[in-house]
Amino acid sequence: MSYPYARYFHEVDEELMCNLIRLNVEALTRVTHAVLPGMVKCKRGAIVNIGLCSPSYVDQFSRCLAVEYKNKGIDVQCQMYLPDFFG
């Protein structure tokens, strides 16, 4: 989810800003938090995050989890979407 059209950050109303954070950041964090206990219990698992919306958060969150859980048999990856203009 993103802005419906291009605009400066100060022009974004608070409700839309909160909805963007809730969907793009909070949802990923909550789902990850929900599945990790089972993975830790099984001593294995894999988390693959797709960095399309809020890519900096998704990337950094994934890197931190990878370090934190590498010794627990849980692999964490982040796949980043790069639009054609980066290629």
What is the gist of this entry?
The protein is α+β, with helices and mostly antiparallel strands and 87 residues long.
Features of the shown structure:
single chain, 87 residues, alpha+beta, 51% helix, ketoreductase activity
Please provide a written account of the structure.
The structure is a single chain. The protein has about 90 residues and is of the alpha+beta class. It has one domain. It contains two helices and two strands. Helix 1 (about 15-40) packs parallel to helix 2 (about 55-70). It is elongated and about 45 Å long. The two termini are about 25 Å apart. Belongs to the short-chain dehydrogenases/reductases (SDR) family.
The H-and-E topology, N to C, reads as HEHE
**Rounded to an integer, what's the Rg over CA atoms?**
15 Å
* Total beta-strand segments: 2
Number of helices: 2
* Main sheet makeup: 2 strands, parallel
Dominant shape: elongated
Question: Into which percent range does the helicity of residues fall?
Answer: 40-55%
Overall tally of structural domains = 1
Provide the low-confidence segments as ranges. none
Family: Belongs to the short-chain dehydrogenases/reductases (SDR) family.
GO molecular function, one term: ketoreductase activity
Keywords: Oxidoreductase
Pfam families: adh_short (PF00106)
